[in-house]
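retry 2 of 3: previous attempt timed out while embedding zinc ion. Reduced batch size to 1 and resubmitted. Inputs unchanged:
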Amino acid sequence: MANKTKPIYGGIEGGGTKFVCAVGTGPEDIRAEIRFETTTPKETMAQVVNFFKLQETNFGKLASIGFACFGPLDPNPASSTYGYILPTPKPGWTNANVVGILRSAFDIPIAFDTDVNGAALGEWRWGNGQGLNTFIYLTIGTGIGGGAYVEGKLLHGLLHPEMGHIPLPHDKTKDPFGGVCPFHADCFEGLASGVAIEKRWAQRGSALPPDHPAWDLEVEYISYALATYAYTLSPQRIILGGGVGQLPHLLPRIQKRMRDLIHGYIQSPAILENIENYIVHPGLGNLSGVLGALALAQQALPEN
Ligand code: ZN
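retry 2 succeeded.
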């Protein structure tokens, strides 16, 4: 019998405030992990490279690396700016060729996608997206973003979906707050992100009790957004992650309000009778991101 060693992958969850890198084969087998603050691209990517080089001395050559990164970014391998961060308010990161840095250090397949597409793929492989062919993963935390797995693959289209920036009904009598998005002011992220909550109430969301009026607004905005995604992408499930998205007291309220907003128009038992299994939290919890990066790495190999 051939004694083939299981390939070991590298995964990078590149966030706007922190990076998480791991090596392993899946959720049950993370061999090493590191977290550090996101600083400049040069310094941050040097830490990534050093970590993987060190792990290669422990575990041997990595089979591939998956990089699930904050955006906007260019995920199109045919584009001249593939692997770049696109113009971003984050200082120093505009046009950073992050994949180029990895490529000059590692001669192995490198997969690059948005953090939320990565998380969606991780949920599909090991979490609450298993067995589905069309679903979305939405994170509501400091910012808001969504990844989409559609008809069996991650959706990119023109660049990649920007689910956090959809316009929403904004009743200024109920919510006079103008919003925080530098591009659109009161888009979904502008109204409902962790940053918006903190600015509107002058307190962090984590300090607000479940009966605070902040959560009435939050339920309303999230439910509108989820209804929009249900209409447009027809997902079989919506996975709601992130620090705000995973608050246990919000989930039942969002399930009920989203179903009420749809008002019977989507005639599926998944929504009409089984909403508890339609809008769910991530099966991988807070590890969706870094495990998603490992799933991207795994997918970058031809045999997967
Ligand atoms: Zn926006």
